[in-house]
Each structure stands twice: as structure tokens, then as C-alpha cells.
What we know:
Structural class: alpha/beta
Order of helices and strands: HHEEEHEEHEHEHEHEEEH
Low-confidence stretches: none
CATH topology of the largest domain: TIM Barrel
CATH class of the largest domain: Alpha Beta
CATH architecture of the largest domain: Alpha-Beta Barrel
Strand order of the largest sheet: 3-4-6-7-8-9-10-11
Largest sheet: 8 strands, mixed, barrel
Helix content: 25-40%
Number of helices: 8
Amino acid sequence: MATKRKxxxxxxxxxxxxxxxxxxxxxxxxxxxxxxxxxGFYWFFIRPYAYRWKPCYGQKGYGVCMPCDYxxxxxxxxxxxxxxDWVQLTTNKTTKFPxxxxxxxxxEGGDHADDTFPFNFDQAHRYGFxxxxxxxxxxxxxxxKQADFFIRTVQLIPGxxxxxxxxxxxxxxxxxxxxxxxxxxxxxxxxHYGVKPILxxxxxxxxxYLSDSVFNTYPYWIAHYYVDSVKYEGPWHFWQHTDVxxxxxxREEVDLNVFNGSLEQLRALTLQK
Length: 273
């Protein structure tokens, strides 16, 4: 029995020794794991925002590096910006990067109105900004219901920018169904206001879901952050180049935009008499 126990102990010892990983192999595995996690962290959390930390070779304004070669600047706002000091905001018209236009969120889905819209829309007109209103599109809600809700909420006058459709999510819709719903909203709005609406969406979303040529007939407002220039190859009218601007008169960070043209061309885009 003693011999059998010794033999079993020797076998157990050999198995235990066989299971021990060599130190050099453990080191290699640890390095590989660290490298994989570091690469993933950079790819998902650092790379998309790396442009924020690049040296600014142009001119800085509103806390960010401003795009070069654009003379017409603007912002877009919603209730997220809180209470706005419109008198102070007006002083930005005389700065190096004067603010000429302001887009405001008016509606979302079929029944959600931005509670700051009526006051801000009125103040923008009072203080001489070229103003515009946008609707945040919900793929799960009837597009005609959404369009009619926007129409009831937003009364445009000559000098205002065309209505804007903000499309950012596909929800549970198929790309085909999304395109039909978006076109339905655009058609209803164009029929009512007598002007082609502006289509707002990101560079990637436009290429992935709204690349149909039918949408290229609408003025395009592109959201494309942390890049030196617009990469979109087609025509575009507005470029939302950052979401972290700091503008006097607004306490919260705000989206900054440029218009791809002159101030006269921007006015020509507005509703006419």
C-alpha cells in the first residue's frame, strides 16, 4: 500500500509540474493581453476624439480650432443649452468668427415639442439672426404625423431658413423603410412650405442609409466632427464641425457650424416673399 501511495504521489507531482506555465510564456501572454486592451481602448475611446488634441494650425475660436476658409458661422441649439442670454450672444456678430445663423430644435417624433423653441425662435428674429427650425426624426412614428406636428408648431416667414429634418437613428426599421419614411416627411414639408427642406445627418449615416440619389436633391447639413475638412464627396451646404463649442451667452457647450458659401448665398437659401 505504501508503494502504491508513493507511486500515486509521484504521478500527481508530475501532473502538477506539467500544469505550471513557464514564466516566459506567462510574460508573453500578459503582454499580448495588455496590447489588445490598449488597442481597443485607443480605437473606441481615443481615436474618435483625437482631433481635439491636435495642434491648431489655423485660428482658435469659441474654444476650438475653427475651420479655415469659411466666412459664415452659426450654431444650433435646443433645451440642452438652457437659458440663453441673447443680448450677449448678439455681441458675437462683431467677433473674428461672427455668428450669423441659429438653428433651433422645434419638435421630435409625433408629439414632443422642445419647450425652449417658441422663446428662442422669437428672440433669434428679434436680434437679427438668420434662424431655422429642425425636427428630430423618429423611425417608429408615422412620418406624416411627424410632419404635421412640425407644421403646427413652426410658422416660418420670409428670411427664415428652410425646415430641417434631423435623421440620426434607424431604430428597428430596415434601410429601405427608413428611406421611404424620410422621403414622405420631406415631401409633406415641401408641399406645405413651398421650399425644399434641409437634410441633416452624419457623414457615416448618410453614406450608409441615405445614399440614394433622391436625397442628393436636398440641401445637405453634414455632421462631421474632429476632422480638418469635410470628407463627403457630394455637395453640402452646412457643416456641423464640433459639439464642444463655448459661445458667450450660452453656458453649456454648443454645436458650431459653417455655411459653405457667402452671406449673400445664405440669404438666398432662405424663404422668399
